[in-house]
């Protein structure tokens, strides 16, 4: 070990107790959302469920927005983990593309945790605004990176740059090129447009199901989603030129 490097000190007893208490508060808040919905979330209700005063809870979360930020970031992280786990698992049917498997991981988490999914994508909570480039943004980028990999991992940057997502207006192309370099700007504008369009299609079907708009399909909701994701992937990939079309491989 270099002379200027020292092992970090272990967390103190006070820090460990704070971490445990914080985790308990977050779990209690998640349970409250599951039972009552995100709009009913309040620090007082969470404190009451833990047998503590709201003044004591303020030592861990100074206001409701601070707790909501942690809950949203954690929901994004859990959703991203579900998608990542699905994408990395050995598929029972090797013929199913990894993008379809990852999309089904997205859907399964959403239908299994509808209240937390609605916290992310339902009616915005009144008086709440996520901190700019904060933990919620970073967590969302994590999930985006998984879908970028399973959707475009087999294509070179040159082929992605030559993709045909229909015509992009000059202002839109310029906007895509100026996105944060650790976000979607890692992709050429054409691929970014394809990713956003595909995500909107996938996400829209999941929202319809989570909000009960496709309940008339009964047990066939998973099947229609699977078929739609296969068609979506075929449509996206046909817009990317073949390996010998641009001389890149």
How would you briefly describe this protein structure?
The protein is mostly helical and 249 residues long. It has 11 helices and no strands.
Jot down its keywords.
single chain, 249 residues, mainly alpha, Arc Repressor Mutant, subunit A, Tetracycline Repressor, domain 2, 2 domains, 11 helices
CATH second-level architecture of the largest domain: Orthogonal Bundle
| CATH-defined topology of the largest domain | Tetracycline Repressor, domain 2
What is the CATH homologous superfamily assignment of the largest domain? Tetracycline Repressor, domain 2
Roughly how many Å apart are the termini? 44 Å
Question: What coarse outline follows from CA principal-axis ratios?
Answer: globular
User: Structural class from helices and strands?
Assistant: mainly alpha
CA radius of gyration is 22 Å
Q: What does this protein look like?
A:
With 249 residues, this protein is mainly α. The chain folds into two domains: 1-62, Arc Repressor Mutant, subunit A (Orthogonal Bundle); 73-238, Tetracycline Repressor, domain 2 (Orthogonal Bundle), CATH 1.10.357. The chain is 62% helix and 0% strand. The chain has eleven helices and no strands. The chain has helices at 13-36, 43-50, 54-57, 64-88, 98-112, 114-121, 135-152, 157-161, 170-177, 189-210, 221-238. α9 (170-177) packs across α10 (189-210). The chain is globular. The mean pLDDT is 88.
How would you summarize the topology of this molecule?
Layout: H1 13-36, H2 43-50, H3 54-57, H4 64-88, H5 98-112, H6 114-121, H7 135-152, H8 157-161, H9 170-177, H10 189-210, H11 221-238
């Amino acid at each position: 070990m270099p002379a200027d490097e020292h092992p970090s000190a272990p967390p103190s007893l006070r820090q460990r107790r704070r971490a445990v208490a914080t985790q308990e508060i977050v779990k209690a808040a998640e349970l409250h959302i599951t039972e009552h919905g995100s709009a009913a979330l309040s620090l007082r209700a969470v404190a009451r469920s833990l047998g503590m005063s709201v003044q004591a809870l303020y030592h861990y979360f100074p206001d409701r927005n601070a707790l909501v930020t942690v809950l949203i970031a954690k929901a994004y992280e859990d959703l991203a983990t579900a998608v990542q786990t699905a994408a990395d698992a050995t598929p029972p049917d090797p013929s199913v593309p990894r993008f379809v498997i990852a999309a089904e991981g997205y859907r399964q988490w959403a239908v299994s945790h509808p209240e937390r999914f609605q916290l992310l994508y339902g009616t915005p909570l009144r008086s709440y605004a996520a901190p700019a480039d904060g933990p919620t943004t970073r967590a969302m980028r994590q999930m985006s990176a998984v879908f970028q990999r399973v959707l475009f991992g087999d294509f070179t940057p040159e082929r992605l740059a030559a993709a045909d997502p229909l015509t992009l207006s000059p202002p839109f192309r310029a906007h895509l090129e100026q996105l944060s370099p650790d976000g979607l700007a890692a992709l050429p504008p054409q691929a970014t447009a394809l990713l956003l369009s595909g995500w909107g299609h996938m996400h829209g079907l999941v929202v319809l199901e989570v909000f009960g708009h496709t309940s008339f399909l009964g047990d066939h909701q998973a099947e229609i989603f699977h078929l739609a994701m296969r068609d979506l992937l075929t449509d996206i990939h046909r817009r990317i030129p073949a390996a010998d079309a641009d001389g890149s491989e």
